[in-house]
Design a protein that fits this description.
Shape: rod-shaped
Largest sheet: none
Low-confidence stretches: none
Order of helices and strands: HHHHH
Structural class: mainly alpha
Strand content: under 5%
Mean pLDDT: 76
Number of helices: 5
Oligomer: single chain
Number of domains: 2
Distance between the termini: 56 Å
Helix content: 55-70%
């Protein structure tokens, strides 16, 4: 920001008026969607749990 201020103070003022959440967005790939990541997580969990996923948690814990 110091470099920007040295070049043009008006630009620095304009940038400072932008919501901070907007600055964070540039760090993320806009092709990634939360639903896909969550879905992949659930699919991985289901494949790991396998035959136990249809059991109630009580029965599962008793067997282990």
């Amino acid at each position: 920001m110091k470099d920007i201020r040295d070049i043009d103070k008006a630009t620095l003022g304009w940038l400072n008026n932008i919501n901070a959440k907007t600055w964070d967005i540039y760090l993320f790939d806009n092709q990634v969607e939360v639903e896909n990541v969550t879905n992949n997580l659930v699919e991985s969990l289901n494949s790991w749990v396998g035959k136990y996923k249809s059991m109630s948690i009580i029965i599962f814990l008793e067997k282990e």
